[in-house]
Amino acid sequence: MAGMELLSDQGFRIDGRKPCELRRIQSKLGVFGKPDGSAYVEQGNTKVLAAVYGPHEPRGNIVKLQDKVVINCQFSMATFSTGERKRRPRGDRKSMELSMHLQQTFEAAIMTELYPQSQIDIYVEVLQSDGGNYCTSVNAATLALIDAGIPMKDYVCACSASYLDDTPMVDINYLEESSGGTELIVSILPKSEQIVFLSSNSRLHEDCLNKVLDMAIKGCKDVYLCLDETVREHMTQVSASFSAD
Amino acid sequence: MPVDNRRLWTPEETIPPEFITKYRPTTELVNQNGKRRDGREANQHRPTYLKAGAISQAKGSAYIEMADTKVIAAVYGPREVMKREDFTMSGQVKCVFKFATFSCKTRQKHIEDDREKELSMTILEALKPAIRLDKFPKARLEIFITVLQDGGSALAAAITCGSVAVADAGMEMYDVVIGCSLRQIGERSLIDPTTDEESHRSLSQSDEKSNETSQAMMTVALMPSINQVSSIIQKGELSIDGAKQALKQCLDTARKLHPVIKQCLNKAVEAKLKR
Amino acid sequence: MAEILMSEAERTFILHGIQDNVRSDGRGCEDYRPIELETEVVSNANGSARVRLANSDVLVGVKGELGKPSLDTPEHGRLEFFVDCSANATPDFEGRGGEDLALEISSMLARAYDCPSCLDTQALGIIKREQCWVLYVDILILECGGNLFDAVAIAVKAALGNTKLPVITVRKDENDETELEISDDPYDCERIKILNAPCIVTLSKVGNQHIVDASLQEESCCLSRLMVAVTENGTITASKTSGSGSLNPESIIDMLESGKRAGTLLNKTLHAKLLEEEVKVGTKKKTMGFLT
């Protein structure tokens, strides 16, 4: 992209961040009453709602598993969420792929053996998209699962990173995503530092991989701190309302 | 039908000729004597021909003709619902409404479009209250309605035709359902409008462009013996009094059609007994 | 729509309450539940609004695109309604599960707005037969807490009122070819007049009475309802019955009357609120969105 510098001479990115800086994360648990758990996460201009139903008996043509719970994910994007209007909110290849990725991520984090012959639904809705759809979706879904009280090994935190202008950058936005550089997405369980999902597109020199990966993992841990704070705040409020009654 | 687009070059989009031609009928929708283009009074229904049992393979069927509007309906079932998850204690009804590809001025597509889907739902809502669903649990009744020619008030004709077909299939019903449409243009209300009357925005050709006159379209489904309205669908502007008036006129006309339907069903039963 | 399980005793309780004009949450038969409204919640859309009517949550985004006018109205722009029932609302909506409800809502809206006096589509026309604005009104249903149609209609009207379309100037260049110039100044924009746009009022028949704004519990007690699209001056732009029951002609007339009363009041309240919201937007208000 001509005429647009991704990193200024002073070392600032397009939206004014430093390379190692995340976008502002704002989140909330328990947005809706109907689902068993719900959460809303804003990462900069990317806004995602997640809802969790279950565990319940498998519905429709989903086959029961004898030893663990079936995790069913659906990723959809509001038709007005992107700059150009989307024709369909879901069902296209990109969102199918993302649904599958979400499912894989959470199968690794939820203690699936606790609910054999049941099903957990995770529904993610992107209201506004500015890069990092997968990451924000994972973070929102984690909060929704916590709100639903589903036992997990740990939080799942996701963050993206890129290597642009010879600098590793964390939590890239839409403009940085579409500038042609590589995009490395990683989801981790922050306490044990286990990677549950890792994906990368376009090429990246082997020497840089570690730098970018470290950056992304650092980002995930920062995300964890933000999410944990929200959860603790929410729990304090909930327990306060219990004791007030 | 697959078309060989590589050998037979066709324009990417086509425009039906009536959008280009300058020809417009010169007569007004309603003349000074209050007569409409086809010579009817404003509150007069078109002569209606109704026949039950038009399709021999179907459990029940009916054909209705109101001048240029021709609709055929067939009823199959009630058939057993195969999937256990879909069981319900009251019977299910499915309704598919379709404009035949050649039925309208512009060609209709083979696949059901949104308008047809919505009309299917409306017809289903109109017919369902009349059918005794408790008589066929775990089973589904299927109603297929096809408009062969749309000469206006197709929805009303489809409702009447569908209900006669259900009755002809020997389903237990509380009552038959009669549909009736009304077109309101300004102060004029025209019962059972033709396609011309449905599409015109004003009475005279001269002020066709202006948006001043209010216009509305209302279709009502009535169960005449128990005096219950099973469905209303209306679009376009109406004052509250206008809406009441339109409703009343539709109901009056629908009641007038009741003897026609009774007679038609009687005939169908007699024919069946003779066989 | 989302179904809930209810006992016979609960049904009777609701029914008797409605007969005495006291509903289970203390409202009268023609009262709405509290409505929360916020405009400009999605920055990628030309206009947006979020409405929360008790537990029903609706988000509407309006996006303007340039398109070709339809053949029978060459000088007019048009509105396209698209409803998406998010699976967040109920797992039944997963995949294509919500499509029937979505179609019912979008066709009701299309009918309600298809009347020249309630929305000036001619103002959306740009070049006759060539170019016009197509406003995609995308409705996202996030939670169903009863009375979806009313909530959707309020949100649609608010979002249309909030819509800002860039000013377009049509010019002829030397070769006599028309050129469109789209203003890139965010303050140089056109608004849509929505004063005459309709709101939908759903009247549910419960027992011998009818009520506005039925909750989920009340909806499950009601067999038939009448939806009326009413403008501020009380004209009806569309109406439709739905549900598995039928209605008495006299009660329909009563319902139309109540629909008109409730609808005009609802429109007035909405206009006042939108004006208030407009002032707030002017002073750089902070959007709260779902964080409240």
Automatic annotation (TrEMBL), chain A:
<dbReference type="Pfam" id="PF01138">
    <property type="entry name" value="RNase_PH"/>
</dbReference>
<keyword id="KW-0963">Cytoplasm</keyword>
<dbReference type="GO" id="GO:0005730">
    <property type="term" value="C:nucleolus"/>
</dbReference>
<dbReference type="InterPro" id="IPR050080">
    <property type="entry name" value="RNase_PH"/>
</dbReference>
<comment type="subunit">
    <text>Component of the RNA exosome complex.</text>
</comment>
<dbReference type="GO" id="GO:0003723">
    <property type="term" value="F:RNA binding"/>
</dbReference>
<keyword id="KW-0271">Exosome</keyword>
<dbReference type="GO" id="GO:0000176">
    <property type="term" value="C:nuclear exosome (RNase complex)"/>
</dbReference>
<dbReference type="Pfam" id="PF03725">
    <property type="entry name" value="RNase_PH_C"/>
</dbReference>
<dbReference type="GO" id="GO:0034475">
    <property type="term" value="P:U4 snRNA 3'-end processing"/>
</dbReference>
<dbReference type="GO" id="GO:0071051">
    <property type="term" value="P:poly(A)-dependent snoRNA 3'-end processing"/>
</dbReference>
<dbReference type="GO" id="GO:0016075">
    <property type="term" value="P:rRNA catabolic process"/>
</dbReference>
<dbReference type="InterPro" id="IPR015847">
    <property type="entry name" value="ExoRNase_PH_dom2"/>
</dbReference>
<comment type="similarity">
    <text>Belongs to the RNase PH family.</text>
</comment>
<dbReference type="GO" id="GO:0071028">
    <property type="term" value="P:nuclear mRNA surveillance"/>
</dbReference>
From TrEMBL, chain B:
<dbReference type="Pfam" id="PF01138">
    <property type="entry name" value="RNase_PH"/>
</dbReference>
<dbReference type="GO" id="GO:0071051">
    <property type="term" value="P:poly(A)-dependent snoRNA 3'-end processing"/>
</dbReference>
<dbReference type="GO" id="GO:0005730">
    <property type="term" value="C:nucleolus"/>
</dbReference>
<dbReference type="InterPro" id="IPR050080">
    <property type="entry name" value="RNase_PH"/>
</dbReference>
<protein>
    <recommendedName>
        <fullName>Exosome complex component MTR3</fullName>
    </recommendedName>
</protein>
<dbReference type="InterPro" id="IPR020568">
    <property type="entry name" value="Ribosomal_Su5_D2-typ_SF"/>
</dbReference>
<dbReference type="InterPro" id="IPR036345">
    <property type="entry name" value="ExoRNase_PH_dom2_sf"/>
</dbReference>
<dbReference type="GO" id="GO:0071028">
    <property type="term" value="P:nuclear mRNA surveillance"/>
</dbReference>
<keyword id="KW-0539">Nucleus</keyword>
<dbReference type="InterPro" id="IPR027408">
    <property type="entry name" value="PNPase/RNase_PH_dom_sf"/>
</dbReference>
<dbReference type="GO" id="GO:0006364">
    <property type="term" value="P:rRNA processing"/>
</dbReference>
<dbReference type="GO" id="GO:0034475">
    <property type="term" value="P:U4 snRNA 3'-end processing"/>
</dbReference>
<feature type="compositionally biased region" description="Basic and acidic residues">
    <location>
        <begin position="197"/>
        <end position="211"/>
    </location>
</feature>
<keyword id="KW-0963">Cytoplasm</keyword>
<keyword id="KW-0271">Exosome</keyword>
TrEMBL record, chain C:
<dbReference type="Pfam" id="PF01138">
    <property type="entry name" value="RNase_PH"/>
</dbReference>
<comment type="similarity">
    <text>Belongs to the RNase PH family.</text>
</comment>
<dbReference type="GO" id="GO:0000177">
    <property type="term" value="C:cytoplasmic exosome (RNase complex)"/>
</dbReference>
<dbReference type="InterPro" id="IPR050590">
    <property type="entry name" value="Exosome_comp_Rrp42_subfam"/>
</dbReference>
<dbReference type="GO" id="GO:0071028">
    <property type="term" value="P:nuclear mRNA surveillance"/>
</dbReference>
<keyword id="KW-0963">Cytoplasm</keyword>
<dbReference type="InterPro" id="IPR036345">
    <property type="entry name" value="ExoRNase_PH_dom2_sf"/>
</dbReference>
<dbReference type="GO" id="GO:0000467">
    <property type="term" value="P:exonucleolytic trimming to generate mature 3'-end of 5.8S rRNA from tricistronic rRNA transcript (SSU-rRNA, 5.8S rRNA, LSU-rRNA)"/>
</dbReference>
<dbReference type="InterPro" id="IPR027408">
    <property type="entry name" value="PNPase/RNase_PH_dom_sf"/>
</dbReference>
<dbReference type="GO" id="GO:0071038">
    <property type="term" value="P:TRAMP-dependent tRNA surveillance pathway"/>
</dbReference>
<dbReference type="GO" id="GO:0035925">
    <property type="term" value="F:mRNA 3'-UTR AU-rich region binding"/>
</dbReference>
<dbReference type="InterPro" id="IPR001247">
    <property type="entry name" value="ExoRNase_PH_dom1"/>
</dbReference>
<dbReference type="GO" id="GO:0016075">
    <property type="term" value="P:rRNA catabolic process"/>
</dbReference>
<dbReference type="Pfam" id="PF03725">
    <property type="entry name" value="RNase_PH_C"/>
</dbReference>
<protein>
    <recommendedName>
        <fullName>Ribosomal RNA-processing protein 42</fullName>
    </recommendedName>
</protein>
